[in-house]
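Board work, copied verbatim: Universal stress protein
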Amino acid sequence: MKLLKSILVAIDFTESSDYVLKNAISFAKTFKSKITLVHILPDDINNEKVSLLVKTAATSKLKEINASINNEGLETGEFVLEYGDYSDKVVSAADNINANLLFIGSGNKLKEEAFQLGSTAEKIIRKSNQPVFVVKNGETLNIKNIICPVDFSKESTQALNSAIIISRMVDAKLVILSVYPYFKYKFTKLDAAKMNEARHVEHTKEFEAYLKGFNLIDLNYETQVMGGDPAAKILKSIKKNESDLLIMGTTGKSGISKILMGSVTEKVVREVPCSFITLKDEDVVVLELESKIKDIENHYNLAQKLFKNSFFEESIQQYNICLDINFMHIPSLKGIAEVYEKIGDMDNAKKYNEMAEHVMERIENMRIEEEVRKQIKR
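↓ predict structure ↓
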């Protein structure tokens, strides 16, 4: 099972990119991902000999880093070494290898609790179709608390799906936050407090209905609803919950859409105290089942892994493959029953338990018949 197949890591051989690489390796180990390195050389070196020396040195360094990644037990792709505009070339490399996630550095650190997003990093976020993981400068991630703001848009839905899977895989607590704007009536007789209270009730109901579309079974999570300026409330919640990682969409229907793509950008990137992942068009994690598994044991083991990580629909699919191979495979029948029990579908749970019992009776009868035949032959 591979959830995050391909990671592209942008490095510039500085100390800050060492942190980016270290965190990418940690992520790749969790998700069994392949890492591909990308390094962009300046295209304004006029001296041909100097340009060749720089390229040779960069090639040697990239080979050395690839070897160190392999020593960690990870697969590496052929590194990308090109000349040109940094952000354009990095984004192009991510497209070319169909990366599931692009790791980059955040920029220069301003103070202990915040960092300034560099202009290059911001350009990559704006241009990239792939999800981008921005690693806070000087930080080694130990992800225990994840926060995901949602505004019910397609983009925030993608972000939340990825946040749920990542939370499960790294055993982190997930805070799902939804912010609604306050109504302000400076020049009317309307009671703003009562209007905002009603808005809170209405938004909470919409939030609860929205969350029913997600698999939150056995997930360590909590929900938060806040009213006010989205950027300010998200930052407040990050600090309050001591979040290690923010996962969010970069476009949407509310103020959240402006955080990285509009007028609120500058404020948020100056104050956000943690690393973050942004999504635009694609999910971070994509469930990709191995296609070469042929025997029933591997399908059954895969089904159990999927069930353990709460991929219930996919787990049932794998159990059914086992039953296609052998319709009397009792562990798969019981496995499907267990899945249905977990999701509260007791009718189907009962159905498959009864099927398992019927198969056991049939096997027992066949065993008895075989013994009788042996006795007759004697």
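Residues 346-377 form the longest helix (32 residues).
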